[in-house]
Design brief:
Number of helices: 7
Order of helices and strands: HEHEHEHHHHEE
CATH superfamily: Carbonic anhydrase
CATH class: Alpha Beta
CATH topology: Beta-carbonic Anhydrase, Chain A
Strand order of the largest sheet: 2-1-3-4-5
Largest sheet: 5 strands, mixed
Number of domains: 1
Oligomer: single chain
Radius of gyration: 18 Å
Helix content: 25-40%
Structural class: alpha/beta
Number of strands: 5
Shape: globular
Distance between the termini: 49 Å
Length: about 170
Amino acid sequence: MATPIQENLVAKNKAYASSFTGGGLALPPAKKYAVVTCMDARIHAAEAYGIYLGDAHIIRNAGASARDALRSLVISEQLLGTEEILLIKHTGCGMLTFKNEDAEALVKKNLGEDAVKALVAFKGDFLTFPELDEAVKDDVEFLKQSKLIPEKIKSKISGWVYEVETGKVRSVV
């Protein structure tokens, strides 16, 4: 039995597919760049950042974490030819509102001690941050210092903040 969310997926996809014309796009992104941004549901990344279908890779995770996105960035660059990275965090991010200890306590309360032990999968680090602009700078620096990012790309890494209140982006670094 399908849930209402699943039924919506099927119905909306049917409408989308009926006029879909992008099936012939090439696998590598046409404009050769990748965007790391947050999974926050208030961000419509393609529209907010002016990305058309086939232009760029959009890598989304909690907090727009460069560390969490590194595997995808390596694939994007090494296998699919991207040459630039835009890291875009946002105002009002949930990752500003808690610490690792808070998340671990919730996991323990809701899922039990065995689940807390399973946090070893990512060393129990939820990659939270206390200050937005500093987090952008730290993640850009992390990418620039990584041996997994080619030198030719390091000069093309930029950090931004998307303002969920206004829909505007501003450059940080």
